[in-house]
Amino acid sequence: MMQEISPVQLQFLGAARTVTGSKTLVQTERHKILIDCGLFQGGKPEQKLNKLREFPLNPASLNAIILTHGHLDHTGFLPALVKKGFHGPIYATPPTRDITEVILYDSAHIQEEEALQKNRRRGNRSKRYKPLYNEKHVTRTMKLFKTFDDREWVSVAEELRFRFHRSGHILGAVSVELEAAGKRFIFSGDLGQRAPLILDTPAPLPEADYIIMEATYGDRLHDTTTSPYQALQDVVNSAFAKGGTLIIPSFAVERAQEIILILNNLIQEKSIPALPIYLDSPMAAEVTGLFQKHRGWHNMTEAETSGLTQDIHLVQSFEETQLVLSPDGPRTKIIIAGSGMVTGGRSLYYLKHLLGNPDNTVLLVGYQAPGTRGQLLLDGAPALEIDGDSYEVRAEVRQISVLSAHGDQADLLWWLGRFKQPPQQVFLNHGEETAMQVLKELIEETFQYPVATPERNQVYTL
Ligand SMILES: [Zn+2]
Questions:
Q1: Is 397 exposed, middle or buried (0-12, 13-18, 19+ CB in 10 A)?
Q2: Domain 9-220+405-461, CATH class in plain words
Q3: Kind plus residue range of the DSSP H or E element containing 351
């Protein structure tokens, strides 16, 4: 009698026709595992999706979770599942484990703070609003981690094993090659550019039956006419010529470190003046420490890696933040502060003081989502609202888009083009609807592979 091959079910619980909430359920006859466990981010409709009742199975019935990288939209739902009974292993690379720890404690802190404010507004008449999770759940989550380097096979259960391959997105980021019930899957995770600034090129991957691939920039190309070095050099020199302050709102993971690396190198080669650089983001400072801990996971030299902290001023407390802007300090300086799209963080404090002076420059780096203060600045808004007050914008606003942790359309096609055998099916996730549609048509045209664009919670039996 011929042995029957049992089917595998794939269900897209998040990042389906959107870019947040990454979660894909893989089910074999006896096992259930999740690839990534992200939080949905954005407005109220997205936040509703983070409710536990939206999660279609009992978290305790999951056997394991495998992470591609540490970003909140891939890890931020973990403590919620642990709170509701998940107790299996969480597999990740060593840097991903550490970045996840920083990100999850920050996330718990933000959620506890939000709950506090909501309850204050509600008074004591209505029922109390509870955060999705708190610091204690994060501590419990971190105990479940099991770390593995890339390229080593890890057995989860009988007929279920995986290995990691570097994906060039952020420190520790990987694609996952999964073998389940005799079928091979590749989950791309977030993919970096073909030639990332400080990481390895995304690794070539073995053949697969099914490829699950991100599509963030499926409809766009990065502007690569100027290198990040040239772009930053131009901005710093013109900011210096005006004699004002250059403020760079930045993401804490990867982006802040890249900017500091480039600035340090530009100063060394005397392409820009040796201005004082202040990093005012506790989270970015923590992540910088991880670049120093996990040296085998990036391509910075020893000197460049130590320069990330030695050659700059790390601002720790709010008292120090105030000192950075004191009239006794240097007038011309560079400040890097969270957050990247000016949605929160310490950059807000600086902008209140710096926006009104045309001598100052605001440099926005990378993608600015619609509706964020970053996008409003780019659109030439005459004033910006911060903490309920309006601040006139007279500072110069500039943007650099070449530094991106994501590959663009050409990079995505290049990545897929390296598979020598056609897969049975490509599934696109982690992309807005239009980006996915454009990429789907391009893949069908270029490679003649069948491409699906799953909706949220859609199930495929393979
Ligand atoms: Zn990411």
A1: middle
A2: alpha beta
A3: helix 347-354
Q: How far is the CA of 380 from the centre of ligand 1 (A)?
A: 28
Task: Tell me the CA–centroid distance for residue 120 and ligand 1, in Å.
Answer: 34
Q: Around Cβ 138, how many Cβ atoms within 10 Å?
A: 22
Residue ranges in 163-310 assigned as alpha helix (H): 228-242, 255-268, 282-293, 302-310
CA 217 to CA 415: how far, in whole Å?
A: 13
Q: What is the pLDDT of residues 369-416, one digit of tens each?
A: 778 899 999 999 999 999 899 999 999 999 998 888 999 999 999 999
Distance 169 CA to ligand 1 centre (A): 7
| Separation in Å, CA 82 to CA 26, 65, 136, 150 | 19, 11, 10, 26
Q: What is the CATH number of domain 228-400?
A: 3.40.50.10890
DSSP assignment letter at 16: S
Question: How many angstroms separate the alpha carbon of residue 69 from the centre of ligand 1?
Answer: 7
Q: How far is the CA of 22 from the centre of ligand 1 (A)?
A: 10
Domain 9-220+405-461 and domain 228-400, same fold? Reply is no
pLDDT band at 4 (very low <50, low <70, confident <90, very high): low
Q: DSSP per residue over 301-319, as a string?
A: -HHHHHHHHHTSEEP-SHH
Ligand 1 centre to CA of 192 (Å) is 9
As a whole number, mean pLDDT of residues 342-365 equals 94
Angle formed at CA 140 by CA 137 and CA 146, multiple of 5 degrees: 135
Report residue 250's pLDDT band, with 50, 70 and 90 as the boundaries. Answer: very high
Answer whether 334's CB lies under 8 Å from 238's CB: no
Question: Strands 396-400, 389-392: parallel, antiparallel or unpaired by DSSP?
Answer: unpaired
Residue 162: both structure tokens together: 């995986």
Helix pair angle (302-310, 282-293), 10° resolution: 160
Task: Give the contacts of 49 (CB within 8 A, at least 6 positions apart).
Answer: 14, 21, 40, 456
Buried b (16+ CB within 10 A) or exposed e, 197-234: bbbebbbebeebbbbbbbbbbbbbebeeeeebbebbbe
- Residue 240 Cα to ligand 1 middle (Å): 33
Indicate the domain borders of the chain.
9-220+405-461, 228-400
